[in-house]
Write a structure and sequence with these properties.
Elements lengths: L1 E7 L7 H7 L13 E10 L3 H10 L13 H5 L1 H8 L12 E9 L9 E13 L2 E12 L2 E13 L33 H9 L4 H4 L1 H6 L9 H13 L2
Parallel strand pairs: 1-2
Antiparallel strand pairs: 2-4, 3-6, 4-5, 5-6
């Protein structure tokens, strides 16, 4: 990837400027063009307890020993994701992009109020049949010790003359040979808007049936990370 802008934060950024930048025209990505290696560093990040409590309520997740929920960092860093995806040199429009995959590893528990060094950076891209896949990594460290990490993949719909090999992580989760229903739960009508307010992710495909149709979907989709957390709460009985 070509060199890109580095941002160093001392607080969670606002999203108004990023929303305005999301409306700008973007040049797109021709075959072989590389996106910039944008990076965001937050050297003294502390997780907000109020936001964490609201997240737990939305996902029906019972807080254990005051620990940060496994998937909460991804939600809390929503404004940072938006900053990266709407940065001036980023060539693609985030409107209509699809959050395709997330791979998360937690090595040690995280706690609100403690200070962590957080880094997010673009690390790979692939031309696939559905469009361009863009990966970025998130790392949460205490000193030099890595506590939590994730690899997030976004899909931008477009066509290419050539394709790249599939990500090695794409086949990590395989369908069950004989799946069985474990639990079921309703998706609240307004969960897209509620979760969007928590994460600052107001992608139209999540908050409006009619706007989602403009991007080729039958109706609005619940946030994938909300569905994952809500499902995990059923599986773990938490």
């Amino acid at each position: 990837m070509k060199s890109g802008q580095t941002y160093v934060l001392d607080a969670q950024p606002g999203v108004a400027t990023s929303y305005l930048r999301a409306l700008r025209r973007r040049p797109g990505v021709a075959d072989g063009r590389q996106i910039p290696a944008t990076r965001v560093d937050w050297p003294a990040c502390r997780f907000d307890l109020t936001a964490m409590t609201q997240y737990a309520a939305a996902c029906r997740w019972r807080l254990l020993d005051g620990q940060v929920p496994l998937y909460f960092p991804h939600a809390f860093f929503g404004p940072l994701h938006l900053l990266m995806l709407t940065e001036r040199e980023f060539p693609l429009r985030v409107l209509g992009a699809l959050h395709l995959r997330n791979h998360i590893v937690q090595r040690q528990a995280l706690y609100p109020g403690e200070s962590y060094a957080v880094s997010l950076f673009f690390c790979a891209q692939r031309r696939r049949p559905q469009g361009l896949e863009v990966d970025f990594r998130t790392e949460i460290k205490s000193g030099k010790e890595l506590h939590w990490e994730s690899l997030t993949t976004y899909l931008f719909r477009m066509r290419f003359d050539r394709e790249d090999p599939e990500s090695e992580l794409a086949a990590t989760a395989q369908p069950l040979s004989t799946p069985q229903a474990f639990a079921s739960f309703p998706v609240p009508n307004r969960i897209g808007k509620q979760y969007g307010r928590l994460t600052r992710d107001v992608n139209p495909i999540h908050i409006s049936r009619w706007l989602a149709r403009l991007f080729g979907f039958e109706r609005d989709l619940c946030h994938g990370m909300w569905a994952l957390a809500r499902t995990q709460s059923e599986i773990d009985g938490i």
